[in-house]
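Forwarding the complex inputs:
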Amino acid sequence: MTTSKNTTRKRDGSLRTALVEAGISILREKGIEGLSLRECAAQAGVSHAAPGYHFKNLTGLYTAISARGFELFAASMDVSRSKADQTPKAQLLAICEGYLDFAVNHRELFLFMFSGQQLDGGNQDFAAASSRAYAILRETCEPFVEPGTDPEEIELLVWSLVHGYTHLAMINKKRPRHVGEALPKLPNLLRHLTFDGTI
Amino acid sequence: MTTSKNTTRKRDGSLRTALVEAGISILREKGIEGLSLRECAAQAGVSHAAPGYHFKNLTGLYTAISARGFELFAASMDVSRSKADQTPKAQLLAICEGYLDFAVNHRELFLFMFSGQQLDGGNQDFAAASSRAYAILRETCEPFVEPGTDPEEIELLVWSLVHGYTHLAMINKKRPRHVGEALPKLPNLLRHLTFDGTI
DNA sequence: TGTACATCAGTGAACGCGCGTTCACTGATGTAC
DNA sequence: TGTACATCAGTGAACGCGCGTTCACTGATGTAC
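Prediction (whole assembly, four chains):
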């Protein structure tokens, strides 16, 4: 239904992409419970054995979905900061907004990515995408690092606060909050952070 | 094996308790994937149909396990603050340590409790236990609330920070960190919080 | 340009597995007399 | 104190289901000549 049945056999990896997108769509509609190799195959319009050709096993699919999630996650922060003023404070607030935005727009995917689900640790796509997300945080925190101190301290502080706030918001409500509900509180939260008076 | 087979039929609800404890034990040993009604029954030494007598369905068991988790969670914060100095700052640090302690000692249970898993919202045990945990936070934050401001703001700030830090720590490592690894960073994190200079 | 052939992505039937749930039953416990 | 009986927690067989995985296969695509 979603794709014509048998007419074309692609060798360009497009089914792999389609299976990952199907997985993300299933997460949105049915949550983690509904995610399986067979369901992804059905939603992509191929036989249930087809995913086995592209993913070693279920963990392989999960890893690919998570990798794609981190790409979207990084992109959300990137877009948000590119729209913001160039001041360090505005940039920091912007990536936090991008963080929250992503979670609100992809609640189940966000929960899946941060569920502690066992993934294929050696996967390069996943490593690249999650590194990309962390790099955005690091770049944005950099202006606030006092010379001679460990940058990780402020990164961990900001990451913990925005992740905790976002994660609790996603957990506590059965239905995703609107961005408009959760977003206005972020600046207030960040206002309470201090790094030797620089924020 | 764990209990004698058929000798005693209890009418005191002890099998219900045993099933919940079995569930917590299964979470520890096999993670969320391994948790099922049948596995709980097996670990409690009863037939696989027995849980149906105590829980309406799988959601009922999940809710009971989560409720018990929040009891342990609240107890961990309570014990920690009772050992600490009576100053507001020491009390605040103590409940955060209790928070982290619980997660480190019950990693899979912690992740399960905060997984967004659909639970029986109307369950009274669960409501009581989670309210108890939140009440501890509220009490401990109370000295820091500026008169005329919304107490929720500082509660949300502290909750977000400690939850985010703890959750990221539990996610990022396959194996639970030792308390000794994660704990020393907490005071540093809290040091960066400011409420009009009162922390 | 045409033909023969190797490649390989995807098919569909089949497998065994663990799951939640149902249901007729059993037998120990508690109670009424 | 003894007996008859109702209660009800737990049993074990049976059910249908969706799952991941395997495997012989097909047929379109790409390549060698």
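Residues 1-7 of chain A have pLDDT under 50 and may be disordered.
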